[in-house]
Recover the amino acids of this structure.
């Protein structure tokens, strides 16, 4: 025996009734927004850290330049004294 279908074939049609996916979508959207807020906060913190690092780097370079300048002035003064002694 072969099976037979004894009724009309039905096709599922999309319904326009509200479902619980709307609430789920809102929760997912809220979660997504929170994730975006966290990402934005992380970007802001990284930008602040980068700015701090650049400021510290500039300060160190300036301090080193001042130190080297003083050292060069001291060496120049010693050279002038050495020349004055030979004259």
């Amino acid at each position: 025996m072969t099976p037979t279908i004894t009724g009309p074939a039905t096709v599922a049609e999309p319904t326009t009734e509200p479902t619980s996916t709307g609430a789920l979508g809102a929760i997912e959207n809220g979660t997504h927004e929170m994730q975006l807020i966290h990402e934005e906060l992380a970007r802001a913190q990284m930008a602040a850290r980068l700015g701090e690092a650049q400021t510290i780097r500039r300060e160190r370079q300036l301090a080193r330049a001042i130190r080297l300048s003083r050292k060069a002035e001291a060496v120049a003064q010693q050279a002038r004294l050495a020349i004055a002694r030979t004259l």
